[in-house]
Amino acid sequence: MLKQLRRKLDTLKHDKNYKRECLKICFIYLFIGFIWIYFSDHIINFVFDDHKTILKLHTYKGLFYVFLTAVVLYYLISGLLKQVESTEKKLNESYDELSAANEELQAYVQQLTASEEELRSQYDQIVEFDKMLSLSEEKYKGLITQMQLGLALYEGKKEDDIYHYKLVETNYSHEVLTGLKQDEILGKYFYEVLGNLEPEHVEQLMHTILTGESTRYERFQNNTNYYYEIIAYRPKEFQLAVIVNDITKRKLAEEQTKISENNFRNLFEYSPDSIFLLSDDKIINCNSAVVHMFGAKSRDEIIGKSPMEFTPNRQPDGALSMDRLNGYLDECLKNGKNRFEWWNYRGDGSLMPNDIMMTMIKAYDKNIIYAVCRDISDRKQMEERLHYLSYHDQLTDLYNRRFFEDELLRMDIEENYPLTLTMADINGLKLVNDSFGHIVGDKYIQKVSKVLKEGFRQEDILCRLAGDEFIIISPNTQEEEIKDIIIHIKELSKNEEVNSVNISISFGYCTKNKQEESIQEVLKKAEDYMYKKKLLESPSMRGKTIYTIMAALHEKNPREEEHSHRVSQLCERMGKAMNLPDDEVRELKTVGLLHDIGKVAIEEGILNKNGKLNDEEWEEIKKHPEIGYRILSTVNELSEMAEYVLAHHERWDGSGYPKGLKGEEIPIQSRIIAVVDAYDAMISERSYHKAKSKEYAINELKSGVGSQFSEECVNLFIEKVAGEIYD
């Protein structure tokens, strides 16, 4: 029994309920024992005093405790055993259920094993079929890719029209034939790929999609210049396969058969170029342009003749025409083509240059030379003109520097000694350009070149090196002869002028007498001598030109002359009022006279305009101080005055022009001119306003103090000058 109990207990020792029951029994046993021992001892000792009686009671108490605990343990262990039996029963029932489930599971496993074998067999078959399908697909793709026909596959949905079918597949031939790159069109809609397809062809394709019937048509594609045969069919529902076949050669052959003869006849007959056919050195056919070129009445006068009958014996370079023509014909027969220039007679007997293109063609089992002759008379004239311009100055028609450098080397030989080089330089050209503009300056240069041509001899070589420099090469000429020529030219110059400015030229020369002398050294000496002469002659010429320019200005606008003289007098009065030295007073008077010299370069219409100037005209007027400065600065004696003229429109507050000088930065002479110029402009009649009163002008000067004018100059002018000159 104990073994059975132990076995049952062992089966439950891992059960949480079993452990809890064991702890419960121990706790009850401990509690009862503690209560019994503790309270029984105290009760006995309290009730009885006799020691023997107490011992007996303790003995009976122990026996009673054993009996009591045996009864309690019996009931507790009995309850535990009932739980063990109940648990064992449940375990047996669970075991039976598990056994039944295990048997059922084994049956399922057997079924699954059988199904797995069947599925494995089916899988092997699917893998085999897949391999066969892949191999077939690869063969199909290879066939599609390598075939010469282009293929494009479109797919759509039930609700899509043809324009919204997408391109899903193309082959390489499709790209080659249509010029549509595969990576650029895949995935695009039909209308994006073939948006320019003709409506009737679109209807054919739509019919194929709807009915499944294949269709065929031909079309020409502009971007590739190919003719295509299109065959369309429906592989599956909502698919459209388009096969493209290049039929260009066939179409061209068909068209060529129809039109080649007519086209050739038209091109041949109506070409503006002269065309003829040669065989066995004879002309066997020609167009009407050849008849016109040779001045014949009809083709019959030309056909059957040799080209040499219309050609001079020699070409312009001296070569025999017969030999050269035979060489050209042989080269054409050898290489299949040839191109060359050729001179032949016109109908009026004059020579005409031609650009001839020969091509050998086969016809009737014979070698025929097809020759096109193009009149290049205009081109030859242009070439001669370009050659002329490359060695001549366009403005003067004299030789240019390039020609001079080449000719100097050619002329530097002993038979031309003494060889004299003469340098000529125009005096005051910059002054003329600044004063009257470059158009007048160009006329000045042309006048000088005209005088040089008249003064030098026929055998002398005149060249223009740069803007104002000329050089003359005189072979077999002594220096004494050149001196006489220069004197003669200076006399001729006195009779020539441009805008009232007399021509002035400085000369320098040097002669090479021996071979060992350097021609470059001779040139340098001539140039140095010319510059020495220019230093002496140019300043006086520029001084005269200044007053010529003033005269030209006064001729354009007579009021300017009167204004300049009045400003000059007022400047002189201001200089004396300021107790300036006499030379500075004279200088101030001269500056007053020349202060508006820059207006000579301003258009006459602007200077004499009635009414207010517009912004563009005002900007033009504002240039005259700078122009005047450039004109005067060309003369050394007037260079300081040029600074005063440049600044005479500056304002005291810095808002003037052209530099925006302020206060004491403005030269005193310029400040004086600013006051007297403004005063005279107000009290004088101008093209744009009537004369104001003296009182008005003085009030305006006062109001301009500190902004436009110097207070010192205005006060001095009002106190000592304004009332004197007009009283």
TrEMBL record:
Task: Give the residues annotated as coiled coil.
Answer: 77-122
Which controlled-vocabulary keywords does the entry list? Coiled coil, Membrane, Transmembrane, Transmembrane helix
Annotated HD-GYP domain residues: 538-727
Q: Which source organism does the UniProt entry give?
A: Lachnotalea glycerini
Please list the residue ranges annotated as the GGDEF domain.
Answer: 417-552
Give the matching Pfam families.
GGDEF (PF00990), HD_5 (PF13487), PAS_9 (PF13426)
Which InterPro entries is this protein grouped with?
Answer: GGDEF_dom, HD/PDEase_dom, HD_domain, HD_GYP_dom, Nucleotide_cyclase, PAS, PAS-like_dom_sf, Rev_trsase/Diguanyl_cyclase
PROSITE patterns hit by this protein: GGDEF, HD, HD_GYP, PAS
Start and end of every PAS domain? 166-213
The name this protein carries in UniProt is Diguanylate cyclase
**Signal peptide range in chain numbering:** none
Q: Which SMART domains does the annotation name? A: GGDEF, HDc, PAS
